[in-house]
Design a protein that fits this description.
The protein is mainly α. The protein contains 7 helices and 2 strands. The chain has a two-stranded antiparallel sheet. Helix 5 packs across helix 6. It starts with 17 loop residues before the first helix and ends in a 9-residue tail after the last helix.
């Protein structure tokens, strides 16, 4: 006769409060933004972070891109979060060349601000997508309008 061994899951799993996950999604993973006292304070922190990065930190690294162009480019990426990267459309909207757009994406990708997800090359129904998708890495920065105007 076989004896069934009873196993319990006690102590092997964790309950997560969904409210905290919503805050993590909306405020993002930067500690100062996530632990801010209010949503408004979190939004202000994200706005200041993005502005400082685009207007001060990137130019100090030796990259010469007009701050207004970089801010407009950032806004376009944020509005097309997860969409296919259409460099020619972005270049036309910004009034720059396609190679310049590629350099901007490379720069923001190297700085770990955006993530470029390469296209998946499967020939299903002979439809081939070669463009990568671009995501802003921090959900809080991409979920707020802090990149467009001051809160």
């Amino acid at each position: 006769m076989l004896h069934a061994t009873m196993h319990t899951l006690a102590g092997r799993f964790v309950y997560e409060e969904l409210r905290e996950l919503d805050a993590l999604w909306l405020r993002g993973r930067y500690p100062d933004a996530f632990t801010a006292r209010s949503d408004a304070a979190s939004s202000r922190w994200r706005f200041n972070f993005t502005r400082t990065y685009l207007e001060r930190d990137i130019p100090q690294s030796g990259v010469r891109v007009p701050a207004q162009t970089l801010r407009r480019f950032w806004t376009m990426l944020a509005r097309h979060q997860g969409g296919l990267l259409n460099a020619s459309e972005l270049a036309r909207s910004l009034g720059v060349s396609v190679p310049a757009v590629t350099r901007y994406v490379d720069l923001l990708s190297d700085l770990m601000l955006v993530r470029r997800l390469p296209a998946y090359f499967v020939n299903v129904g002979k439809r081939l997508v070669k463009s990568p998708k671009v995501y802003i890495r921090d959900s809080g920065v991409s979920c707020t309008r802090c990149w467009a105007s001051a809160p």
